[in-house]
């Protein structure tokens, strides 16, 4: 997609205060060329003055009462969803699922419902391109909470009713700046795993900057088709694929 075409479109970012979401938001604002960029979250993302913000609108919503914010999900073209957490940060398995799965899935359903196809087309699929940052190893049948939740969320997004869904499955994330809540295991692995992975070209880890850049490039490569789709087009992106996109 050319920047001229992108300049007529609106991007929506969910989870813009997280590690991946913030990196993505900064990349989209600097390089996306969108007419408008909207963030929806429990609080606005904090950005420094070096990031262009003339086309940015930040809005706060209650994810536990999304019905009250339906209007905020309308008239968008590309949705970047980086909502997520860990069981440790959430405090319990139930709280983890509420944030990591229910918030994401319910948001996706409302977006599909509030951005319907043109009445002149025969498709029932929303023309919105939904781009979701999931996780490597996601598996809806996993006995473990985290990969199971991610796999189930992916499946629910695919069934939500979009023309196109892109799912990004990063491995270990190399954060751009320290998280608000320290994660000892993540910090330890970052010291040990990332250098080894890069040296041996194993693609086990990836920087949040590269994930954000890859998501933005995939969105801008999409040229809306003249004929509407009858089936959801689903694409998956691994560490290796995202790194290649970010380097080009």
TrEMBL record:
GO BP, one annotated term: import into nucleus
A Pfam family per the record: NAD_binding_10
Membrane topology category: Peripheral membrane protein
Residue ranges constituting the NAD(P)-binding domain according to the UniProt record: 15-108
Subcellular location: Mitochondrion outer membrane
Protein family according to the UniProt entry: Belongs to the FMP52 family.
Protein name (record): NAD(P)-binding domain-containing protein
Organismal lineage: Eukaryota, Fungi, Fungi incertae sedis, Mucoromycota, Mucoromycotina
């Amino acid at each position: 997609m050319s920047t001229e075409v992108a300049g007529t479109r609106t991007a929506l970012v969910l989870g813009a205060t997280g590690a991946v979401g913030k990196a993505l938001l900064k990349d989209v604002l600097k390089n996306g060329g969108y007419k408008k960029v909207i963030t929806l979250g429990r609080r606005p993302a904090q950005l420094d003055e070096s990031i262009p913000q003339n086309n940015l609108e930040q809005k706060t919503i209650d994810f536990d009462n999304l019905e009250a914010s339906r209007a905020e999900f309308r008239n968008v073209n590309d949705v970047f969803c980086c909502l997520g957490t860990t069981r440790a940060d959430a405090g319990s398995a139930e709280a983890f699922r509420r944030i990591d799965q229910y918030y994401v899935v319910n948001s996706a359903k409302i977006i599909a419902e509030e951005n319907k196809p043109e009445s002149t087309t025969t498709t029932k699929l929303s023309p919105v391109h939904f781009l979701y940052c999931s996780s490597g190893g996601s598996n809806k049948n996993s006995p473990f909470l985290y990969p199971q939740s991610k796999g189930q969320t992916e499946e629910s997004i695919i069934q939500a009713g979009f023309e196109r869904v892109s799912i990004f499955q990063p491995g270990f994330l190399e954060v751009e700046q320290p998280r608000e809540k320290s994660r000892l295991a993540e910090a330890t692995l970052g010291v040990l795993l990332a250098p080894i992975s890069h040296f041996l070209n194993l693609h086990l880890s990836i920087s949040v900057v590269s994930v954000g850049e890859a998501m933005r490039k995939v969105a801008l490569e999409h040229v809306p088709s003249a004929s509407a789709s009858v089936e959801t087009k689903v694409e998956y992106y691994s560490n290796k694929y995202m790194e290649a996109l970010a380097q080009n």
